[in-house]
Amino acid sequence: MERRSSLKTKTPMKRGGWLRAKPGKPKGPGLAQRLADVLGVAIDHKPKGPTVYRSRQHRQNVAELSCVQCGKQQRSQCAHLNLLAVGKGKGLKVSDALTVPLCADGLAFRGCHSKLDQGGVYDKPTSASLQILWLQQTRTELQRLGQWPEAAEADFVRHIGAYLARGA
User: Which residues lie within the region annotated Disordered (predicted)?
Assistant: First the structure.
């Protein structure tokens, strides 16, 4: 069968699927959750707190220090450690307690922060030992200034203590 006239849309199509929930109505508990409530075995789901230490003030305190590698002043950034063994992963940053001040790139030089992040300057064992050394120096300096928080100390001990205990 051949069509003699072109197709024309008379009413516009609606956006979205027919299963879309009505806006403004929160989704209630599912069947399994309702059944568990009736049986008295329901788990009280609560959002987890942060698993690692996060503090903007701590990152600012670290960035105010001079570069721990080359000693440049007033060019530092707060750099997180890049060690898989202490929690670094693709798309994941380690705890803010595991940060060191490293200088940023300039017009005529490559900064220590980008050298660490982009690799190629140090082999892996050298990089790992330098990062641990830098972290210990940063911790000592912030403790001397009275800017090392107790929460950072707890995360430091948890992550670095376990790393050093493994003999890495």
Answer: 1-30
CA 29/CA 26 separation, integer angstroms: 10
**Distance from C-alpha of 144 to C-alpha of 150, rounded to nearest angstrom:** 14
- The boundaries of the domain holding residue 124 are 56-165
Between 59 and 3, the more confident residue is: 59
Q: Does residue 106 lie within any of the structural domains?
A: yes
Q: Measure the CA dihedral 119/124/126/129, to 10°.
A: 110
- On whether residue 115 sits in a domain, the answer given is yes
pTM score: 0.69
| Domain count within the chain | 1
**Average pLDDT, rounded, for the chain:** 86
Helices (H), 20-75: 31-39, 56-63
pLDDT at residue 89, rounded to an integer: 77
- Per the domain annotation, does 75 fall within a domain? yes
